[in-house]
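note to self — DONT lose this again. spent like an hour looking for the file last time. sequence + predicted structure for the chain T wanted, 166 res
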Amino acid sequence: KKILQVPPSSYMTYNFKTNDSYVNCYYDIDNITIDNDLKFSMCTEKINQLLTSSIEKRLISDRPIGCLLSGGLDSSLVASILSRLMEGSNKKLKTFSVGFKDSEDLKYAKKVAKYLKTDHYELILEYDEVIRRIPEVIKKIESYDITTIRARVGMYMLSEHICKNN
């Protein structure tokens, strides 16, 4: 009857004998110490290296490489690094965007895709279809959190579209 969400950066321990549960926080950003001697350029270089190597690990595939692209900073950065890593190969990066007609995401994703010369695809959503699919998404993601559902419906429909058409 009582279903609770475990907070971010935490895990729950449940004792079946005593029927007790405990939430344990394993990460707290407020307790991070910063070495002030580190140079900004060293930090940015390390972030670039870690992000690039993380993306590079995921390039091993016998299937075409795809990237979800919203046109925002995060997905544009990932697509850019992917594009650079794929230069010289016989593979072309596929990018996929989702949104309602005239959405900002589609507009900026298209600009990024054009700049990176990716094989770009868009899924234009219809309001009625999105509303109709909400119960299905709630069941799949097992959450009634409004923000989570709002963010997931389009991604769910785009992932489904990619699976059927690519």
